[in-house]
């Protein structure tokens, strides 16, 4: 099938507006990366200082969400939007974002740009993520259980090692870079006297909360979105509240409808770009959900089959 229609940003925004929304900062992307790692270490320190079941669960959720945040910032780097200097963009995206969570920037970029070119068409490499929806609530709960018990993680890592990966999983990994960055993290924590924190506060979040919030992100972006020729219909925007942004959707990833139409706008510009679109009346052409809970309600409305 032909590639999806693209919209010229200057048909929507004035040249001055688009220059502002598309500008790549020399420091905002780096601040985002630093904040992801800062919150990871702060959440770990919280549990070290006040060890109890509540602070551990909170640390796992915060760290898993920031691991997703690193993948989101790698995604920005794949679009060349993380830094104004492409060499810095690619180095930071590769070594500080992609490698620690088992991804590879270059191969992800090729994969992901094909998704943009053929969104929700048969050629879309992510089509299998949205095609099964809507599903039943029981089916969703089974998936959640697999995520939180580590079964999804084991399946993905087995596929990563043996090369049998499915679309949408932690994609296009480089085992060597993943092992190197994780070895450095383990060595650093061990030198500080906290070797156990690598397993309890890095691997456990990666094996539990990260798969779950990645699944929720995938559902919110394209599940049950009836795409038409209008590019504004190709993805969903979810109006995440502060808690959803903290634990599920960091770094403006919930503005996915805006990203699909204007894919070269950096993530840190998407909120102001969204406000501008709303003021211009484009809300009537977009899929906008009020929360992640509402998205799950829409994605799990398949009736249970009754026996004949």
Order of helices and strands: HHHHHHHHHHHEHHHEH
- Poorly predicted parts: 168-173
Largest sheet: 2 strands, parallel
Determine the structural class based on helices, strands and strand pairing. Answer: mainly alpha
The geometry reads as globular
* Strands, total number: 2
Average pLDDT, to the nearest integer? 92
Backbone CA Rg: 19 Å
Number of helices: 15
Helix content, binned percent: 55-70%
Spell out the blueprint of helices and strands.
Blueprint: H1 15-22, H2 28-49, H3 53-78, H4 86-98, H5 105-117, H6 127-130, H7 137-148, H8 151-162, H9 175-191, H10 195-207, H11 209-222, E1 236-238, H12 242-247, H13 256-261, H14 270-279, E2 287-289, H15 292-299
Parallel strand pairs: 1-2
Helix pairs in contact: 2-3, 3-4, 3-5, 3-10, 3-11, 7-11, 9-10
Can you summarize this structure?
It comes from Candidatus Viadribacter manganicus. The chain has 308 residues and is mostly helical.
């Amino acid at each position: 099938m032909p590639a999806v229609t693209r919209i010229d940003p200057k048909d929507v925004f004035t040249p001055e507006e688009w220059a502002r929304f598309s500008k790549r900062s020399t420091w905002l992307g780096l601040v985002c990366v630093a904040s992801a790692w800062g919150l990871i270490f702060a959440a770990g320190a919280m549990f070290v200082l006040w060890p109890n079941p509540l602070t551990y669960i909170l640390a796992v959720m915060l760290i898993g969400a920031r691991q997703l945040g690193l993948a989101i910032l790698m995604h920005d780097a794949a679009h060349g939007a993380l830094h104004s200097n492409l060499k810095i963009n690619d180095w930071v995206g590769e070594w500080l974002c992609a490698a620690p969570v088992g991804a590879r920037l270059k191969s992800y970029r090729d994969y992901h740009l094909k998704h943009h070119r053929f969104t929700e068409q048969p050629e879309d490499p992510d089509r299998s993520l949205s095609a099964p929806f809507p599903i039943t609530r029981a089916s969703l709960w089974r998936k959640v259980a697999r995520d939180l018990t580590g079964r999804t993680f084991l399946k993905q890592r087995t596929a990563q090692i043996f090369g049998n990966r499915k679309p949408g999983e932690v994609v296009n990994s480089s085992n060597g870079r993943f092992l190197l960055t994780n070895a450095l993290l383990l060595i650093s924590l061990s030198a500080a006297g906290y070797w156990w924190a690598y397993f309890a506060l890095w691997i456990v979040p990666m094996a539990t909360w990260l798969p779950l919030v990645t699944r929720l992100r995938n559902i919110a972006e394209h599940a049950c979105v009836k795409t038409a020729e209008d590019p504004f219909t190709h993805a969903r925007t979810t109006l995440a509240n502060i808690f959803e942004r903290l634990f599920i959707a960091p770094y403006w990833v919930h503005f996915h409808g805006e990203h699909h139409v204007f894919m070269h706008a950096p993530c840190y510009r998407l909120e102001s770009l969204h406000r501008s679109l709303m003021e211009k009346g484009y809300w009537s052409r977009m899929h906008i959900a009020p929360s992640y809970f509402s998205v799950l309600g829409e994605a799990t409305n398949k009736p249970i089959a009754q026996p004949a």
